[in-house]
Amino acid sequence: MNVSRNRFSTRLHGTTRRAHVTTVTPRNGDTKDDIPLSDTHDELTVFIVAGEHSGDALGAGLMRELTRRRKGLVRFLGVGGEAMEAEGLTSLFPLGEIAVMGPAAILKALPRLTKRVYQTVAAGHAAKPDVIVIIDAPEFTHRVARRLRNRLPLTPIIDYVCPSVWAWRPGRAKVMARFIDHVLTLLPFEPAALERLDGPSATYVGHPLVERRDWIRGLDLDRWLQRFELVPDRTPIVVLPGSRGSEVESLMPIFKATLAQMRDMGHSLDVLIPAVPHLRPRISELTASWPQPVRMIEGDEAKFAAFRLARGALAASGTVTLQLGLAGTPMVVAYRVEGLAARLRFLIKVPSVVLANLVIEENAFPEYLQEDCTPQKLAGGLDLILKDTPERQAQLEALAKVDRCMQLDAASPSDRAADVVMRYAKRSATA
What's the pLDDT tens digit per position in 151-171? Predict the structure, then answer.
C-alpha cells in the first residue's frame, strides 16, 4: 500500500490549523479505508449537485451505495435529475435548466445559470452538510463549490468526474485545489495528471462502463444477428454521428459521402446506427438517401450488440470510443466543429482527443479532425480496419489494452466512490 499525506485545512476559533491526514491507497487503485466508519446512528447529510444528465446517473449510483452503507440513515439535498430523485433527492430545480454545453450555449444561458448558482449555494449553506459532492459540469458546479468553500470552510468538497484539465486550460487544476479536497476520476490517467498540475488529490474509481463489461460480453449475439437481419455477403459496421444535434448536422453529410466512397471501393456494407431518441427522427431523415441499407436501433442492449457484431465503427469523438473499446470494436474517429469552439482548438494540450487513445497512452485509433475530417480520409481509414490488415490487428491488440487499463477489482465505481465520500465525511465529523 502506498501511504500519502494530504493537508486538510480547518479553522478553529478564528485561527487556521493545518492537520496532516493519512490517505491509504492500495496499489491496485482500491480506495478501501482502514479507518473504521462511525458506529453512530446520526443521520449523514450529503449535499450533492449534478450539472448534467450523465452526472445524474453517477450521482444515483453513489446515493444508492451510501444509502446501503448507512442503512437508510442518510439525507440528500441538492440538484439532480430523475435518476437521483428516484434515490431520494428532491432537486432544487429541474436539471435541464443548467444542463448546457459549449461556450455559446453557456453565454446565452448565463443569467439563468447565475441565478441557479446562488440558489444552490444558499441551500447548501443552510443544509450544513457533512460532505459536499459536485458531479461534472464544472461551469456550474465549480461556481457552487467555490462559494460553499467560503461559507462552509470545514466541510469537505469532493468533485466526481475530473474536468479535462489535462486537455486544455491546465491552470484550472491548481485553482481547483483551493476549493476542492478530492477528485473522483473516471479515467485511470487522471490522478497522475492532477498531481503533475498541482491539482487536488484524486482517486481513480473507474468509469461506469466498466461495471457493464461482463454484461456486454455476455450478450446473445446470435439472437441480435437475426433481429438486425444481417446477411453474410454484407459487412456490418456501426456509424455513430454523436449525441448532440450540432454533431449530427455537421458529421452526417460527411459520413454519407464516406460510405459512398466505400461503395466505390467495392465494400458492401450493412450500416447500423444507434440513435438517441431525441435525434432519431432527424437521423432517419438524413439517412434516407444514403447509398447503403441503414438500420436505426435504439436501446443499450441493441447498441452494444451492434458494437459486438460490427466489423468496425465510424464514430464521432466522445465517450463512445470507450464503449467501443470495451466492446472490442475497431474504429475510425471523426470530429468537426464550427464557430467559436473551432477557433479555440489551439488551447487543446493533448496528443489525441480520442479517450481510448488517452487511456492506453498511444494513438492506436486513427482520428480525423477538422480539415482532416474528409470522406476520402475516413474511407481510407475504414478500408484498413475492415480488411485483414496489420492495421486491423494493431487495433485489436490496442482494444485489449483498453480493457486491461480500465479494469477494476471486484469493487464497482459507485462502491469505490462511496469509500472516499465516507472517509471525508468522517474527517468532517471529527475535525
Answer: 999 999 999 999 988 877 889
